[in-house]
Every structure is written in C-alpha cells, then in structure tokens.
Specification:
19 strands; 38% helix; Alpha-D-Glucose-1,6-Bisphosphate, Chain A, domain 3; alpha/beta; five-stranded mixed sheet; 3 domains; 15 helices
Length: 449
C-alpha cells in the first residue's frame, strides 16, 4: 500500500491490503498520538459502515486502542459525519470511521478525526505512519485496570438525527421524495431523519447484507433512483454513498443534479439570505466550467483547490468560508458540520425546494454544464509514481489543450483513494472531448506496457 494515508484516510482491499494487523496498529498509534495531552482516561469513538469486513476491522481497532489504555466507544453503523459530530457531543478525544466510502464492498478504510471532529492534519498522519511503518515510537502497553474498556453507545443514531433536524425549520409536508441509501450507512439514519421532518418519503436500497453496499445504487449509480422518481411521480430523489458523506440528486424528470449544481443552488439561496460568508464558495479544479460561469453571472466569488475534500476544508477554514465541495457531491457546510454530510445537504436542498415553490428541474437550471468526460485507468501504486511527470503523457495533454484552446481544459491526475489514473477533458463539443480523452488514455496505456 505504500504510505498509509491518502486524501481520505487509509484505504485498501480488506484483509489483504487493509489487514486486521494493520488496523490494530493504526488504532494503537492513533490512540497514542491523539490522546497524549488528555488528563483523563481517553475515549475514542468508533463508527462503521455496512461492509462485511467492518465488524472485523472494528474488533482489530478496538484491540489496538484498548491496549494503550484508551476506551473505545462503539456507536455502530452510522454515517461518517455522525462520527465527526458525536466526538464533540460525547466529549471524546478522537474518532474513527471504518468505511471505504463510495468504493465497492471488497474495499474498506479507516478515517481518523481529532477531538474537534476534523480530519487529521498531514503532520499527525505522518506521525501515525511513523509509528506504524517506521516504529519511531514504542507503544506503552497497559496492564490490569489500566487497559481500555469497550463502551457501547446506543443513542448515536438518534443523537445524530436530532442534530440534523435542528439545522432546518418547519416540516416538509407536501413533498414526495425518493431516498437511495446505497445499502450503506444512511440505511441506519435516513428513515428516522426524513420521517421526523414530515416528508412523504420512499426509501430504496436500504437493506444492507454486507456485500451490496454501493452495488449499482447510491450516488455512484443514479439509474435506479432516476427510474424510481419518474415511475412514482416524486418531486425529487436524493442518493448517498456508502458512508453518506456525499449526496447527489435527481429532479422530477430523473435528470441528474450533480455536486456542482447542488453547490450552485445552495450558494445562491445562501447569498439571497446573506448567509454566504465573504460571498465566496470553495470548489476544486474539477468543477465544471459551467459552475464558474454561474458564479460570475450571480456575483459569487470562487476559491479553487486541488482535488480532495480535505483541501476544500482547509481553504474554507483559512478564508472563513461556509460552503464548499466537489462535483462528486461531497459538500461541506461549516456552520453545521466539520466534514461533508450527504444528509445535511439533502435536507437543506429540500428546504430550498419547499420554500421556493419551484420544481427541482427549475432549481437545477441555475447552471448549465459543459460536456465533460472522465476516464478511469486502473494502475498500481508504483505506476502512479512512474507516470508522474512522464514526458509522453505531458505531450499528449499539451496537444489536447492546444486543440481546445480557451474553450476547454484537460486534467490528468492520480486518484488519492483508488488505484486509478483519472483523465478528465472538458469542452463545448462532446465528440471532440471523447476523442481527446481516449488519445491521452491510449498514451498512458502504452507507457504502462
């Protein structure tokens, strides 16, 4: 796996790359690093998604945490943002989410949060890596009464849902929506959340069996949701990924409302209410050209970061901004959350839909999308490094950029969460960008032969 942490925690194939032994060492190292300044018995909150391997990795993490004298507070199947929120609510010293987010069931991951509910800084991740991989610090193993305990917190789902419902006013009666839980973490929270809000709600893909998480459903595949919305005359549909930190939507016609359009809708509503601090929204370089045109037309400033929600959040905190996110639907609203929260995004979107009196398609029409193609090429971690700065790949990119001119762009990058090289080409003509993306992909394939 190389070094441990990518852009969104530790991730890999469960039981071969992300092993129980590695999980135990990460739990132990995280407990050592994140609880060293506490003057009480440390507590670390642990949540998980519905993957078959999550229970196994939870047990390993608990063993590592308790071995150095910290208590493990188990909150069961919850969304990632629930862990971030409940750390502070329960007065814990840190938190861990076991999830590979939008990845298939055979993968799993470990996301670590500090006592304030934020993902770890690079410096803290480096220190944990040094303990686990380089054995820079020797663990102080506890014995007898000093060994950590396991605490099971049964109110986590209700505490988190109550937090979400407190962010909006009134009930949403009169709306009929469909909610796709991706057979993941939202399966544990969405039924309670939307019933409390008074929404007429059809819940789909909420029967997790350990291996069906993200399987042809949720935010990674909107086709089922789109058909369901059309066939059942819903006002809108929302879909989450495996750990429910992302949200995408479809309008009443089943057309996709991606993260860029969601951010456009939210930012315009916040600007009208004068709650968009510094009149600025933060997005990544992969945001659609159409988003930047929208922002220019509506007088909204845009700050741009490299790909990854951690970089979006860093810029938001640096500039005091309250809204930011990615085209993937990972949207951060810092007035209510320290990380992306798909269900928070969904209920704020529903609030706008309810109070605007418009149809979802009318809200989404605020922004026009440029055609965009994304090709994902499977590679090894070693080949990710090999391709970085490759002369022939750079030439292919430059050739495509010259052809597109000012009416398009090309981004080739290594995924921070998956063994992929992503080729993104954007421009006015779909056939042109399809051809250019395939040209670049073919060069990459040849360089890997």
């Amino acid at each position: 796996m190389g070094r441990l942490f990518g852009t969104d925690g530790v991730r890999g194939l469960a039981n071969t790359e992300l092993t129980c032994e590695l999980a135990m060492k990460i739990g132990r190292a995280a407990a050592m690093v994140l609880t060293e300044v506490t003057h009480k018995r440390p507590q670390i909150v642990i949540g998980k998604d519905t993957r078959i391997s999550s229970d196994m990795l939870e047990a390993a993490l608990v063993a590592g945490i308790c071995s150095v004298g910290a208590d493990a507070v188990l909150i069961g199947v919850v969304p990632t943002p629930a862990v971030a929120f409940l750390i502070k609510k329960y007065g814990a010293d840190a938190g861990v989410m076991i999830s590979a987010s939008h990845n298939p069931a055979e993968y799993n991951g470990i996301k670590v949060f500090n006592s304030d509910g934020y993902k770890l800084s690079d410096a803290l991740e480096d220190r944990i890596e040094a303990i686990v991989l380089d054995k820079k610090e020797k663990p102080h193993l506890k014995v007898g009464a000093a060994v950590g305990r396991v605490i099971r917190q049964k109110d986590a789902v209700h505490d988190y849902v109550n937090h979400l419902t407190a962010t909006v006013k009134g009930h949403y009666d009169g709306l009929r929506i469909a909610v796709d839980c991706a057979n993941g973490s939202a399966s544990a929270t969405a039924p309670l959340l939307f019933s409390q809000l008074g929404v007429e709600c059809e819940i789909i893909n909420a029967r997790p069996d350990g291996i069906n998480i993200n399987a042809n459903c949720g935010s990674t595949n909107l086709s089922h949701l789109s058909s369901f919305v059309r066939e059942n005359a819903c006002d809108m549909g929302v879909a989450f990924d495996g750990d429910a930190d992302r949200c995408l939507a479809v309008d009443e016609n089943g057309a996709t409302i991606d993260g860029d359009k969601l951010i456009a809708i939210l930012s315009n509503a916040m600007k009208q209410k004068d709650t968009l601090k510094n009149n600025t929204v933060v997005v990544t370089v992969l945001s659609n050209f159409g988003f930047f045109r929208f922002a220019e037309e509506y007088g909204i400033n845009v700050a741009t970061t490299q790909v990854g929600d951690r970089y979006v959040l860093e810029e938001m905190l640096r500039g005091g901004y309250v809204l930011g996110g990615e085209q993937s639907g990972h949207i951060i609203l810092t007035e209510h959350s320290t990380t992306g929260d798909g269900q928070l995004t969904a209920i704020l979107l529903l609030s706008i839909l309810k109070h605007s009196g418009k149809k979802a398609s009318q809200l989404a029409a605020i922004m026009d999308c440029y055609p965009q193609v994304m090709l994902n090429l499977k590679v090894t971690e070693q080949n990710k490094i090999k391709l970085d700065g490759d002369i022939e790949v750079d030439k292919a990119v430059k050739k495509a950029e010259d052809e597109l001119g000012s009416e398009g762009r090309v981004i080739v990058r290594a995924s921070g969460t998956e063994p992929l090289i992503r080729v993104m080409v954007e421009g006015k003509d779909k056939s042109t960008i399809d051809r250019l993306a395939e040209d670049i992909a073919e060069v990459i394939r040849k360089r890997l032969d």
